[in-house]
Queue: 3 jobs
Job 1
Amino acid sequence: MEKTWKIRGSAATWKMTVTILPPDSEAVTGPFPEESEPRPDFDGLADHFHTLVDLTEAQLLLELLT
């Protein structure tokens, strides 16, 4: 599974890609639950990414003004 976010800012176009890969087959041992794994909820991660971009863009703007 792969998820990508892209934010166009004033200083750059910011891109974050998260890839979830299955574990190495050698490292996987049972027993396994009957239910499939829940799908990840990326909302919190996307919120943090937006905050990081906002703060970085604000810092770059402040550096230009000083």
Job 2
Amino acid sequence: MPIYYYKPKFFSQSTKPVDVYDDDDNAVFKIARYHKSNWDKFRVYDQEHFSVYDSSNNEIAYSEQKTRFSRPKWEVRFGQSLDDSLTFTNMSTFTKHNYEFDYEGKSFELRKTLGSTINYLYVDGSEFASVTYGSKLLSFNNPTVYIEIEDESHIPTEALICIVQTYNGVGK
């Protein structure tokens, strides 16, 4: 069961890449926020766009916010030549933060209960991964994010990491 972890930048608008490590402490991916234009840097509300790079600094996945209002949506692209895509949609309610997407005929859901430090990812109703955050209590640092994947066959790892970082960027 692979585990990946990373520590997000303290300043959420930073475009500097963050290393993602595997359970052997090898840097296997990098995550970076990017701005579509210079105007994105100055917007009052956050435009959430992220890229995932492999260890050779080749872009292997990215997310781009498509709609901002009512039910925000992001397009996530990944795979060979970034040909595969999915739409990641906010389906949150007052007490739960739920995001949904479909990939290869399967329904996925990223779910978190209010006040919890653990998110769960489900495919067709059964859990296949979890995302845990280090403690935020009395800390000026962002918590370390741990992604534990029970079954990697459902979705490529780089796409999953991109989805998790996009979810983190819009506010847990």
Job 3
Amino acid sequence: MVDFAIDYDVLHAAKKELHSLADRTGPKFRDKAFDGLGDYGANNDEVFGDFGLSSAFSTLYYRSKGPLEKAEKDLRKLGDIFSAVADAFFNMDAQIADGCGFRGSDVGYDDWREKYDAWLKHDEWQKKKNLWDQHEQHGDSCVPGDKNAPEYCGATDPGPEPKDPGKPPTSHTIETPDGTVKTELTLDDDKNVKTETTTITTSNGKTYETVTTFRDKTGDSYTTVTTYADGSKATADVVIKRDGEGNMTDGSKMTVTDDKGKKTEYVPDGKKGWKEA
């Protein structure tokens, strides 16, 4: 059950309405005619028809001028705060969503790649299948421990015949009432992923984009450029070293550079991922 949720569109709509209110009230208050009526030095008796009413209006004008001018600025500032909060949570959620599709799993590439690699080894499969067929026909003649037994005596079922999986999937789009998530891949001549671009867009047009460029076919050496909702960018350069079980080991590192050029180094933190060096 969700205990806390952020609706980005509502926050951005709040910003729009607050700025609109500031746009409507500010210019009206600074209107020359309105400003002139509030001037104590002006002869407004003819306009109001009464000195007391004219004096009361001038008093009201000068007492409200400061607070209203401040209110216009504060309305804009509050709108900007709503927008900043929306962008911050959007960026965080977008990072999570983007991470779920890393290296094309959400476009179906990983499944396709497994089938493609199996298809490339079709000749090897056929050889194993022939031996298995012989084993099925003549297995009763095989004697355990016989060093001179036919090769088919040690055969095992190679499983179903691998098929050509066709063209690799390179794009996928998820559409919801709140926005879209689009992932696109580019492949090299050997069908390995060269780049992966994920763009997350809200219904009001806010975007978060990551472009990852892989330097090897393992996916353990890559650079990711992230463009956040406010237009700022960060670049992460990653090199991962693994042990025999596939776990990240010492020697792995990640360097993140923000749009101001500040670099932050990260090192492995066990199974938790990364920690600042």
